[in-house]
Amino acid sequence: MRIVVFGANGGTGRRLIQQALDRGHDVRAVTRQPRSFPVAGAGLEVVEADVTVDAPVEGADVVLSTLGAPYTRRPVTLYSRGTAMILAAMRRVDVRRLVVVSSGATEPHHHAEGGFLLNRVIQPLVTATIGKSTYVDMRAMEALVRDSGLDWTIVRPSGLFDSDSVTRYRLSENRSDGVFTSRADLAACLLDQAADRTWIGRTAAVTTAEGAPTLSAVLRREAFGR
Ligand SMILES: NC(=O)c1ccc[n+]([C@@H]2O[C@H](COP(=O)([O-])OP(=O)(O)OC[C@H]3O[C@@H](n4cnc5c(N)ncnc54)[C@H](OP(=O)(O)O)[C@@H]3O)[C@@H](O)[C@H]2O)c1
Fold first, then answer.
1. What is the CATH number of the domain that holds 7?
2. Tens-digit pLDDT profile for residues 85-114
3. Ligand 1 atom having least distance to the Cα of 70
């Protein structure tokens, strides 16, 4: 399969590219910083592009987007502008299959596995403050994707943590009780979606149960870089 990946140079993207090459796919990794891209291998093409300017999707069987931007109190436009560019490019060259990463926090809800700290403190605080503009833009992205008329799947992870081991991740419609998703599982999920039509036109929440760290450790690292 020929796969184009946006957000290729990120934590999830790098794992995704490696897993895709390991599975024998041909991969185009799109990044603004090709010189810092660490993955190499047969079947890999690294292309320099800013997705808000250009989305090189020609020749793809499937497009996977794991674009991301840090939390900020300023307006965020990467998700909607970047995805609009991807959608326009896909229509132009007649590529139909798209899988995009969003977030479970676009639809805040009670997590049975989250306890008081997540449900009553962290989730309300993050979605109302430092994450607010991110989730506004992610919801705009989701709306664009749902209205695209393409063969789309939206994948919503919970709080991301680093791991290179793929586990038996869980998928559920729209939302999940699970609190964590490993970047390895998110990458594997995106690749599995590339080859499967079950979730076309649907939103899948993906979570990891095995080997997840503590809530406070993930929050410190992901939100504040410590
Ligand atoms: N952190 C969490 O707990 C959490 C929870 C739920 C969902 N998510 C979402 O999960 C996804 C993956 O997260 P992650 O932490 O693995 O990603 P990440 O490390 O933040 O990587 C995102 C990548 O997006 C690329 N990018 C940003 N702006 C771009 C632009 N204008 N043009 C082209 N590429 C651009 C960057 O690549 P270059 O700089 O190389 O171009 C970057 O490497 C993101 O969508 C994130 O919002 C995160």
1. 3.40.50.720
2. 999 999 999 999 999 999 999 998 888 888
3. 20
Query: What is the total count of domains within the chain?
Result: 1
Say whether pLDDT at 12 is over 80: yes
Residue 223 has what pLDDT? Answer: 65
Q: What is the pLDDT of residues 133-166, one digit of tens each?
A: 999 999 999 999 999 999 999 999 999 999 989 9
**7 CA from centroid of ligand 1 (Å):** 5
C-beta of 181 in contact with ligand 1 (< 6 A)? no
Give 13 Cα–ligand 1 centroid separation in angstroms: 8
C-alpha dist (Å) from residue 175 to 7, 81, 105, 149: 23, 25, 9, 23
Domain residues for the domain of 119 are 2-224
Predicted model pTM: 0.95
- From ligand 1's centre to the CA of 153, what distance in Å? 18
